[in-house]
Each structure stands twice: as C-alpha cells, then as structure tokens.
UniProtKB/TrEMBL annotation:
One of its GO terms (cellular component) is encapsulin nanocompartment. This is Type 1 encapsulin shell protein. Its main location: other. InterPro entries: ENCAP (IPR007544), Encapsulin_nc (IPR051429). It comes from the Bacteria.
Length: 273
C-alpha cells in the first residue's frame, strides 16, 4: 500500500485511467515553469530535502576543541489540490461515456500548476524558495502596453544577458494575457509577432499561468534547478454515496545556481509604481 491509497477508492481501472489522462492533459498545458528549467527527479515521496553542498559553522559547541558544521539542505514542499468526482459520472465512464464531467479536476490541476509556476518565478519565502524574478540582478526591461515594440524589448533582454556572459539559446516565459496578445499581434507586413520573438530567442515562448509580465531566461542548462520528490500524482481522500474526494499532489523545491541568467519584462506602469 502506498500513501496515495488509490486501491481504497471505489473507482474502476478504466475510470482511474480516464482520471489520470485528464489530469495529465490539464497539467501539461499549465506547467510552464518546469519546461524552462532543469528538472531533476522524481526522487520519491520519502525524499525530504535537497543537499545544497554548503555548511554553516556552529560556534560554542559542547566540547572545546571540536569544530562543528551543519549541512545546508532545502526542504521539499508538499503541495496538494483536492477535487471531487461524482460517482454517477464514474459509473457512466464504466459504461463507455466519453464526456465525463471532470471540471473540478481541471480547476485543481490549474491551482497546483499555478502554485508551482509562482514558486519558480516569484519565489515563496515560507517554503525557502527564492524565485527567478526577485533573484535576478538585472533591471527589468519595460514594454509598451500595445506590444508594438515587443521584439525590440526581447532583443534588449537577450543583449543584457549576453553582456553578462550568459549564452543561449533563450526562452520567453509569459503570462496568459501577454501570450494571447503576442499570438494575436501581427507586425507591419502581416508577419506574426511571435515568430519574430522566437527568432530572436532561438528558443521557445511558453505560456505560464500565475506569472505576471514576462521573463527571458537562458536555456543553456545548469542555471535553474527544479527538484522533484514525488511528481504530480492523483490520490484518494474519501468517498460517500454521491461523490469521491480525490487530490493532485506533489513534492518539490527549487533553487538557482546563476541568478543573472534571467531578466524580467514588465509594463512601464509597473516600473513607475
């Protein structure tokens, strides 16, 4: 028996497959941050921390003449988003229904993906995670509201990284709103804006729910490290006559080797505040 307790749920193998497939589909579209950083793992549910390779000296130890140091580690964060599935819907799935109502699952998947994205890009003090944006030493690159000169702003960000010895290729992480604006915008002559942006980056543009604005970051590897304990999995909580309570859960942490390998793109209004 594992801690997910799936074998105790009143769910058939077929319905479990539908749930897992739906969760995977929803998560793949929303987990933008992990597509742009180094992913290490999964290392399992029991992994509780990540070794940082550093120590803190402990003064005034209990025995004179003995030098002591404490190893630095980064604890794993447990993240869980619960959702409910109707038992009638599960019965219909067993009968062959292809339009099973998984709306609550979809919302839970987006919540847990947003948390992961926010932790990676903005950080989370309580979890000991320093994000990419606050750790960057670069002044953010401003952009105009109508995205008319967005390629030039991306080029400025790339140039700033190059000037600090940060090689490419590069990627652009953007908020859902900015992603929509970029995809829908064409430059003079009808050339799609996103194609121009990708040509400058020599890498992908990725939609990241939970992010505000954009971030240009190097894809050379070794700069941003996502550590996965248990990767995203669906577990069982409890059930009654009408519904089954499930959850999406993972353990992870994140740390940065090269803070200068990323630079934010923000609106001019944000810089003025």
């Amino acid at each position: 028996m594992d801690h997910l307790l799936r074998e105790h749920a009143p769910i058939s193998d077929l319905a479990w497959k539908l749930i897992d497939d739906e969760a995977r589909e929803r998560l793949v579209d929303s987990l933008g941050a992990r597509r742009l950083v180094d992913f290490n793992g999964p290392m399992g549910w029991q992994r509780s921390s990540v070794n940082l390779g550093r120590v803190d000296r402990l003064d005034n130890g209990p025995v004179p003449g003995v030098t002591t140091r404490r190893r630095r580690v980064l604890p794993m964060l447990e993240a869980r988003a619960e959702f409910t599935v109707s038992r009638e819907e599960l019965f219909d799935a067993d009968r062959g229904a292809v339009d099973v109502d998984f709306d609550d699952l979809a919302e839970a998947a987006l919540r847990v993906a947003r948390l992961e994205n926010i932790a990676v890009f903005n950080g989370w003090d309580a979890a000991g995670i320093v994000g990419i944006i606050p750790s960057s030493p670069h002044r953010p690159v401003p952009r105009v509201a109508d995205f008319a000169d967005y390629p030039q702003r991306v080029a400025q960000a790339v140039e700033a990284l190059l000037n600090h010895g940060i090689g490419g290729p590069y990627a652009l992480a953007v908020s859902p709103d900015d992603h929509t604006a970029i995809v829908e915008t064409t430059e003079h002559g009808g050339y799609p804006l996103f194609e121009h942006v990708r040509a400058i980056l020599d890498g992908p543009m990725v939609r990241v729910p939970g992010l505000v604005g954009g971030v240009v970051l190097s894809q050379r590897g070794g700069d941003f490290l996502f550590e996965s304990g248990q990767d995203l999995s669906v577990g069982y909580r409890h059930h009654d006559a009408d519904s089954v309570r499930l959850y999406i859960e993972q353990t992870f942490t994140f740390h940065i080797a090269t803070p200068e390998a990323a630079i934010a793109l923000v609106s001019s209004q944000s810089l003025e505040r």
